[in-house]
Design a protein that fits this description.
The chain is of the alpha+beta class. It is 31% helix and 20% strand. The protein has two domains: 5-161 and 190-210, Peroxisomal Thiolase, Chain A, domain 1 (3-Layer(aba) Sandwich), CATH 3.40.47; 214-227 and 262-379, 3-Layer(aba) Sandwich (Peroxisomal Thiolase, Chain A, domain 1), CATH 3.40.47. The strands form four sheets. A nine-stranded mixed beta sheet has the order 5-4-6-7-1-8-15-14-13, sandwiched between helices. Strands 2-3 form a two-stranded antiparallel ribbon. α3 crosses α4 and α10 (265-287) packs across α11.
């Protein structure tokens, strides 16, 4: 089989960085009041800035697909005509602009210069970007494609705005109940960010400059054991099952904010770290790899709260990672879901720090129903 190399990386973020003190200027005040949970969540996640694809006045500036297309075009900024050589576009997101058509073909619609090519759209949440990369990786390994682009993007911000919760709040007021949205809905408003990243994957490394050889990509799901933890377009029932938006009336959808993103915070804290990172030891053993081989550890985390939790589990499993090997940009970029790992790789790749032979381990947990993806790459 051919080897597969990431030869170029790019990212796109919309507009200006939004600081913590400006967040509600963009997101709005629910029922005219500042959030009770905002300070607590920000103190734990330690995010300092993030990006939104709309203005302070609430005017959209980019769609999800458009941001992804701009990241793809950036891969070919030095030679725009080369984009015509792409023969695969593989794109992941958890916040598509529509249910159908697929996210990937909508991105392709912004890239008419590519001509007619294969397009695939892995669904999921944070792991969707890694699934997109694995499809590109496998296509190059099998020598089925020559120039594959993997991309990941998110546009969470419209689902975080206060007007998405207004009908629910008014319903609570009518029922003479506490007019605050529940913590499972408010929690993610202070963590999520918009943006996109893209990789060019080829069968040969760059003739000059660094490339990243993809040694392996592996993953696992625990949905057979655990109920949903993060969800959208559904309501969680008392027995832990999800009731689809399709089974609610339009009035119920508004009253329950069914299309807001929700997080079962208690379940998240109990399960997200141990399930995946206990399994990492098994994956490393199966691949004949050890943490001693790793020079950079890039964990996708939604909050710095989980940093010490991951460290503890790695130590318990006999695969500790010294802190000087950790690399993340959560504080400056926010949680960009499926695109976060792309943005971390882009920042490290363009930092000038990498040396030939160094190994990079990517770790992407997904809390939606507890899925995990891991990838080992070598700088060549």
């Amino acid at each position: 089989m051919s080897e597969a190399y990431i030869t170029r990386v790019s990212r796109f973020v919309p507009n200006e960085a939004v600081a913590n003190e400006d967040m509600e200027t963009y997101l709005g005040f629910i029922n005219g009041k500042s959030s009770k949970s905002k300070a607590i969540v920000l103190r734990n996640n330690k995010i300092k800035s993030r990006y939104y694809a709309y203005t302070r006045e609430g005017i959209p500036t980019h769609t999800n697909a458009e941001m992804a297309s701009l990241a793809v075009k950036e891969l070919f900024s030095q030679n725009p005509d080369e984009i015509k050589e792409i023969d695969l576009l593989s794109c992941g997101t958890s916040s598509p602009d529509q249910i159908m058509p697929s996210h990937g073909v909508m991105i392709h619609g912004w890239l008419p210069e590519t001509g007619s090519i294969e397009v695939v759209s892995p669904s999921g949440v944070c792991c969707a970007g890694m699934h997109a990369l694995k499809y590109a990786y496998m296509s190059i390994k099998l020598e089925d494609k020559k120039k594959a682009v993997a991309a990941a993007s998110e546009r969470f911000s419209p689902s975080l705005r206060s007007d998405q919760f207004e009908e629910e709040v008014q319903q609570l007021i009518r029922l003479e109940q506490n007019p605050y949205v529940s913590f499972d809905k408010d929690f993610l408003r202070w963590m999520l960010s918009d943006g996109a990243g893209a990789f060019l994957v080829e069968g040969k490394p760059n003739e000059t400059g660094d490339s990243l050889r993809i040694d392996w990509i592996d993953g696992c799901s625990f949905a057979n054991e655990e109920e949903a933890c993060m969800y959208m377009g559904a309501h969680k029932l008392d027995d832990g099952t999800l009731k689809s938006f399709k089974d609610y009336s339009n009035e119920e959808i508004l009253a329950k904010s069914v299309f807001s993103i929700k997080q079962d915070v208690k379940l998240l804290s109990e399960k997200i770290v141990k399930l995946g990172f206990n399994n990492l030891k098994r994956i490393l053993d199966a691949k004949g790899a050890t943490m001693d081989d790793v020079d950079y550890f890039l964990p996708h985390i939604s909050s710095y709260f989980f940093e010490s939790k991951i460290e503890e589990v790695l130590i318990e499993n006999g695969i500790p990672v010294p802190k000087e090997k950790w690399f993340t940009n959560l504080a400056t970029m926010g949680n960009v879901g499926a695109a976060s790992i792309y943005m971390m790789v882009e920042e490290l790749f363009t930092s000038g720090k990498l040396k030939k032979g160094e190994k990079i381990l990517l770790a992407v947990p997904e809390s939606s129903r507890f899925s995990y993806m891991f990838c080992l790459m070598t700088v060549v």
